[in-house]
């Protein structure tokens, strides 16, 4: 390829439907094409390159802008990486590309960090995409996508928003028999017991929520429509086995105010004297629902994982 002209190299990229190469110089184009071809070969060897995204379970209609934004970003990523079959999964009413049309350059920049992604979000509740890491023994690795619309709250996968019974079962809570036979999610005694468990075991819960949020690379897309600000942050957390939260540095807003926990309470974590509001619990008194959401900006202040910020030029 060294004998080819820049225009010839770009034509190769166009014919192979690569994206994100328009500003590359000749040496960068050659390296880009080589890596993409190597990626394609590895993908075919593992069967990833011949996969077509197939519909498994019907998608429910998003109920708010945040949900619609999340579906739209997943769809857009699957499309720019030329995944086949995604149109059968993401029905028209699930997606609104107008939400992200001005941020297309951000996603193109992101492709320098992930030359290829395969959508698997319809098959796996833990991961959204997978890829082959040719720099690390051609391992198959995974990516999760989180989005925010005018806010910084992110719900962990799997158990971040669930029923009270599933919460009790997941964390293997040892409750008195009278609270579980029968299981009544509107029982004030049961709700009080769950809230007490959260306060007493907050270090364990936060570590588990962290694993369910940063169990793989995280592509975090933030959009503030009012301030006309948006960015993508790629967070690479690595092994979380030794990442812990010091219980002595964790606080709750309802305890600090010396009030009863009604439905929501903020979780604080103190780092070097600074009290950071890293998350929030919501336990509804009249709905069978328990939710935990991270404040991603504050969480990444408390635990500064390696990350890459992608912004507009």
Structure description:
The structure is a single chain. This protein is α+β, with helices and mostly antiparallel strands. The chain folds into three domains: 6-48, no CATH class; 52-149, no CATH class; 153-301, no CATH class. The protein contains eleven helices and twelve strands. It has helices at residues 6-15, 26-46, 65-80, 86-89, 104-110, 164-170, 177-180, 188-200, 202-213, 253-256, 296-302, and strands at 118-119, 129-133, 139-149, 153-154, 161-162, 217-224, 229-235, 250-252, 264-271, 274-283, 290-295, 307-310. It has a six-stranded mixed sheet with strand order 1-2-3-6-7-12. Strands 4, 5, 8, 9, 10 and 11 form a six-stranded antiparallel sheet that branches. Helix 1 (6-15) packs parallel to helix 2. The longest helix has 21 residues, at 26-46.
Radius of gyration, in Å, reads 22 Å
Q: List the quaternary state of the chains.
A: single chain
Envelope shape: elongated
Structural class: alpha+beta
The amount of helix comes to 25-40%
Strand content: 15-25%
Query: Averaged pLDDT, please?
Result: 84
Number of domains: 3
Number of strands: 12
Number of helices: 11
How far is the N terminus from the C terminus?
31 Å
The residue ranges in which pLDDT falls below 50 over 5 or more consecutive positions are 46-60
SSE string, helices as H and strands as E: HHHHHEEEEEHHHHEEEHEEEHE
Describe the largest sheet: 6 strands, mixed
């Amino acid at each position: 390829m060294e004998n080819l002209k820049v225009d010839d190299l770009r034509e190769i990229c166009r014919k192979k439907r690569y994206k994100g190469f328009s500003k590359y110089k000749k040496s960068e184009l050659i390296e880009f094409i080589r890596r993409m071809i190597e990626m394609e070969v590895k993908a075919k060897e593992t069967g990833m390159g011949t996969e077509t995204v197939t519909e498994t379970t019907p998608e429910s209609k998003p109920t708010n802008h945040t949900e619609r934004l999340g579906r739209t970003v997943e769809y857009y990523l699957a499309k720019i990486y030329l995944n086949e079959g995604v149109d059968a999964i993401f029905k028209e009413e699930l997606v609104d590309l107008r939400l992200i049309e001005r941020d297309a350059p951000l996603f193109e920049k992101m492709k320098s960090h992930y030359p290829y992604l395969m959508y698997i979000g319809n098959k796996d509740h833990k991961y959204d995409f997978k890829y082959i890491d040719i720099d690390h023994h051609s391992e198959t690795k995974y990516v999760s996508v989180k989005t925010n619309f005018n806010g910084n709250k992110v719900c962990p996968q799997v158990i971040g928003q669930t029923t009270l019974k599933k919460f009790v079962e997941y964390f293997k809570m040892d409750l008195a028999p009278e609270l579980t036979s029968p299981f009544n999610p509107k029982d004030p005694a049961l709700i009080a017991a769950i809230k007490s468990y959260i306060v007493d075991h907050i270090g364990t819960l936060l570590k588990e929520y962290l694993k369910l949020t940063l169990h793989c690379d995280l592509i975090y897309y933030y959009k503030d429509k009012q301030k006309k600000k948006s960015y993508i942050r790629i967070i690479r957390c690595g092994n979380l086995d030794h990442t812990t939260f010091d219980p002595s540095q964790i606080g709750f807003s309802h305890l600090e105010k010396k009030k009863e926990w009604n439905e929501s309470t903020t979780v604080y974590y103190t780092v070097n004297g600074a009290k950071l509001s890293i998350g929030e619990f919501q336990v509804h008194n009249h709905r069978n629902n328990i939710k935990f959401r991270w404040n991603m900006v504050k969480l990444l202040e408390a635990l500064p994982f390696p990350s890459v910020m992608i912004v507009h030029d």
